[in-house]
Amino acid sequence: MTYKSGPHFLQIPGPSHVPGRILRAIGQPTIDHRGPEFQALAHEVLAKVKPIFQTECPVVILPSSGTGAWEAALVNTMNVGDKVLMFETGQFSSLWAELATRLGLKPEVIAGDWRHGVDAAAIEARLLEDKGHEIKAVCVVHNETSTGVTSKIQNVRKAIDAANHPALFMVDSISGLASAEYKHDEWGVDVTVSGSQKGLMLPPGLGFNAVGPKAMKANENARINRSYWDWKSQIGMNADGWFPYTPATNLLYGLNEACDMLMDEGLENVFSRHERFAEATRRAVRTWGLEVLCQNADEYSPVLTAVVMPEGHSADSYRDTVLDKFDMSLGSGLGKVKDTVFRIGHLGYFNDLMLMGTLSGVEMGFAVAGVPHNKGGAQAAMEYLTGNA
Length: 389
Prior knowledge:
Blueprint: E1 9-11, H1 20-26, H2 36-53, E2 59-62, H3 66-75, E3 83-87, H4 91-102, E4 106-110, H5 120-129, E5 135-141, E6 143-144, E7 149-150, H6 153-162, E8 168-172, E9 191-195, E10 207-211, H7 213-219, H8 231-238, H9 249-265, H10 267-287, E11 291-292, E12 304-308, H11 315-326, E13 328-332, E14 341-345, H12 352-369, H13 377-387
Parallel strand pairs: 1-13, 3-4, 3-5, 5-8, 8-9
Antiparallel strand pairs: 2-10, 6-7, 9-10, 11-12, 12-14, 13-14
Helix pairs in contact: 1-9, 2-9, 5-6, 10-13, 11-12, 12-13
C-alpha cells in the first residue's frame, strides 16, 4: 500500500471529524459505572445534553447507532398493528419505514421525489381523512443525509395541530442536531431521535431519544416487547445517576466535552457557521456548472451538499478517483440516487481552511477524472468566505 503523507480528508456527512479535545476526553481511564465518580458524570452529561436539543424533557442516551434510537422511539410508544404516517424524503426516511414494518407496525408512506422536504400540507390532508384516528404517529426526517434537504419541522407541527389529530410527532434529527437549528420543545416534537457521530462530533456509538410528556404518556400503553430499549427503566435510573446496563462510559466523557464545546461557541454561532459553509459550497457547485440535488432554496441543508453528476458520468467512479489521488472521502449516493450524486459533508468540527481544502480536492478530482466542469468553483467559495468572514 502506497504511503500517503498528511491527514486523510473525511468529507462524508458523518461520521464527522472528532476533535482532539474530545478524543482526549474519551481516552481517560474507564471508571466504575456503579461508583460515585460515574454518578457525578451521569448527572452532569444528562443535564448538559438537554440544551443541545433545546428541551427541558428527559433525553435518553443509548449505546447504539441512530438505527437503535429509531427503534427505541417506536417500541416505547407503539403497539403491533399501529399505523404510522411517514414522508419519503430520501434513503433514511425509507429505512425508518422499513424498520417500522419489521416491528409489526403499518407505515403509510407519502411519496416524495428526494429533492424536496416534507410537504406539511400533504400530511395535514391525510390526517384530516383519518377520522377514526388510526394513525398513531407522524414520523419525519429533519435533515435528510442522503439528499441534503432540510425539512421545516415547525410546519409539520402546525399541520398536525390544524388537523386536530392526536398522533405523536417523531422527528429524526440524527444529522441535523447541533448543526442545523432544532428546537424540540418550541416546535412541539414528542420524540426526537439523534446520534453521536454527526454534529455532536463524537465517534459512532450513542443514540438519543428526547422524550416529551405526550410520548411518556403513550409509553404507559405501549405493549411491543422491549427490554434493552425501555425508556421507563432508563429514565428512572438516570434520575439517580445510573443506567440499567453497562453504559458507554468513555463516550459519555466525550459527550460531556462535546456539549461544552458547542455551548462555548454558542448554538446560534454553530448554526450560522454551518449555513456559511453550505452557501460557500453551493456557490462552488454552481460555478462548476453542476446542480445541487435539493431544489428548494428554503430547504438547503447546512450539514451537507449533494451534487448531481453530469449525465453519463459515474459518481462512484469519480469518488474512487478522489480517494486514490487526494486521499479524500466524499459521501456516496444512496438508494434512488446511487451513483448519480456525491455528497460533500461540511458539518461538525470544521473551519474555513478545511472547507477550502475540500472544495479544492473536489475540483482537482473533476480534472483528473475527466468530469466536465467550469473552473473556479473553489475560488468562488473562497471569495464568499473572505467577504463573509
